[in-house]
Amino acid sequence: MAAVKSKKSKGKSSSSKSNKTLVIVESPSKAKTIGKYLGSKYNVIASVGHVRDLPKSKLGIDIDDNFEPQYISIRGKGDLIKSLKKEAAKASKVYLATDPDREGEAISWHLAYLLGLDTEEACRIEFNEITKDTIKEAIKHPRKINMGLVDAQQARRVLDRLVGYQISPLLWRKVRKGLSAGRVQSAALKIICDREREIERFEPKEFWNIIAEFKKGKKFQAKLIEKNGKKLTVENKDQNDNIIKELNSGEFVVSDVKEKIRMQKPYPPFTTSSLQQDAGNKLNFNAKKTMMIAQQLYEGVDVKGRGTTGLITYLRTDSVRISDAAKQTAKEFIASKFGVEYSANNVFSNKKKDIQDAHEAIRPAIIELEPALIKDSLTTDQFKLYNLIWNRFMASQMSQAKSNSMQVSIVNGIYGFKANGSELIFDGFRKLYNTADDEGAKLLPSLEKDEKLKAESLKGEQSFTQPPARYTEASLVKELEDKDIGRPSTYAPIVSTLTERKYVAREKKALKPTELGFLVNDLMEEYFKDIVDAGFTANMENSLDDVEVGGQKWKDLISEFYGPFKKELDIADKAIEKIVVEDIPTDEICEICGRPMVIKAGRFGDFIACSGYPECKNTKPIVKTIGVKCPNCGKDIVARRSKRGRLFYGCSGYPECKTVFWNKPTDKRCPECNSILLEKKTKNKNFVCSNEKCGYTE
């Protein structure tokens, strides 16, 4: 890839140059934070994300010209680009300080093109955290734009465009408008569909657990696990009853007692994937929400007494590595706050090849800023996520937890029982980070080998084997990571896309494929096996990594992919017959023409329409009550969508009653004016009065 050469300005004297250095970042909040650190000699402005991209209206890739991308300036950014050029023209230097990853590198490359900067010159700076020292140090060490990173991003963008812009129209023609396919998206859909079919095929099997309860000072239980030294499964009630009969005629004797000190190592600090999983499991955040809030914490939050402050390191990383400086600071903090015995020198390594190890794990940027100290400066969700990140990182640098564990073997004739107990004797890292591994069991009473025991009770409990659980967003992210499908930056949008396309529905936290999801997945499996194959997708990710380190030319990679893909595309276009997806019937009758009403899928969600379309174009929204009555007329308040898809809340008596709220009404009343309170998640404010003249908040 040829370097972008600088464009010489005409008719401009050197006197028109300012003494300021221009620094360009992606977001306005990031610009505000960095501008504060750098001072008046620097002008920090935001590109507001990408400035150039492939056109939305067409493929934008010249396949005949070796897959050359046809980039254009993004629509609506003309004024911004003019402003960037103006500021760059008068600046003494220009530094591109976009995010330290492939996407950020590509944004810098596109900015260099538009501003006429030479990519062979040191115009790029990067940093892993937004703190004063880090920013000032980064300014001292500019570098050239890394074309390996740029080319890897271009390869991904072109691959995704070729797949999405050629399979999606096929689905539009053969099934219905609004459908889509994608490399990672389609592989994820197959994983969800495969799991659902596994659940459908599952046949539960009966089994019984036989539990004996004993008492020696305190009660404890032992479970039957073996017969004649071999694992035993009790399959039915008759077998259960016969065994219990035998046990009642026998004698319980302690055959073995094992006691040991069990050490539990702390978990490593968060990667992007593990953060999304833990936030999903512990905070009930979806991946998209997690990344949005993490971005806010990274770019900077207005902290009382400190001003705008970046709170965490860069949020897109596969690495568990921690800098020596951060380790030392954490060590000193832990020793001071909890005691020297809680401090440890823990080193973590990545389980697999990882070329994004240049970035540290996700950790607090300023360790001394304990979550409780800055809680008043954060929104509720920001505090929850920052608290999770801070605790996980600090816990990763703490001592192992220590438990006294005990396992007792008890025999009754040919039958063997096991009882396990545990008692925490030193909490270590668990002082800050709770784990699922916390047994919560009490230590068993003191028992000796050959000691005879009397069962207080002996009973069998019927159970059935359970099907595998449906994926949640958190478990899907883990599965994608384990299969090496996608990268941290791609996990968050996947489920959003699948649900928006109506391929997957949420049942509480579980992801269940719809009939449409099965239909699209089956078509993809039949005609585009490679696209949905986990192994193929993982190999493609590895190939993108090779492009990044210079091991493969990105256009060669695209060419190798496109030949077989184009053949599959042509076959599918000829072989797939038009598929009619039936609308979902309702009990409603069209008040205009008398035909039945049906549920249709629209751009902003499902809606009700007349089955007589296009002769009758009667439509109405699907409304959902929220359990709150209208304060003006007493009818139900319902959730609706505006024409632009924005959620709002209005009276079901519209148009007679035109009561409307942009924030969710509650059944709580304002203590000052008795108007209803609205949910509004802002800093320190969970509820606000619906009466604007009142101004009450809580």
Task: Describe the fold and architecture.
- With 698 residues, the chain is an alpha+beta fold.
- The protein folds into 5 domains: 14-145, 3-Layer(aba) Sandwich (Rossmann fold), CATH 3.40.50; 162-201 and 475-575, Topoisomerase I, domain 2 (Orthogonal Bundle); 206-265 and 401-464, Topoisomerase I, domain 3 (Distorted Sandwich), CATH 2.70.20; 272-396, Topoisomerase I, domain 4 (Orthogonal Bundle), CATH 1.10.290; 585-615, no CATH class.
- It is built from 17 helices and 30 strands.
- The strands form 9 sheets. Strands 8, 9, 10, 11, 14, 15, 16 and 17 form an 8-stranded antiparallel β-sheet that branches. A 4-stranded antiparallel β-sheet has the order 20-21-22-23, with no helix packed on it. The protein has a 4-stranded antiparallel β-sheet with strand order 24-25-26-27, with no helix packed on it.
- α8 packs antiparallel against α12.
- The longest helix has 28 residues, at 147-174.
Summary tags:
698 residues; alpha+beta; Rossmann fold; Topoisomerase I, domain 2; Topoisomerase I, domain 3; eight-stranded antiparallel β-sheet; four-stranded antiparallel β-sheet; 17 helices; 30 strands; 34% helix; 24% strand; globular
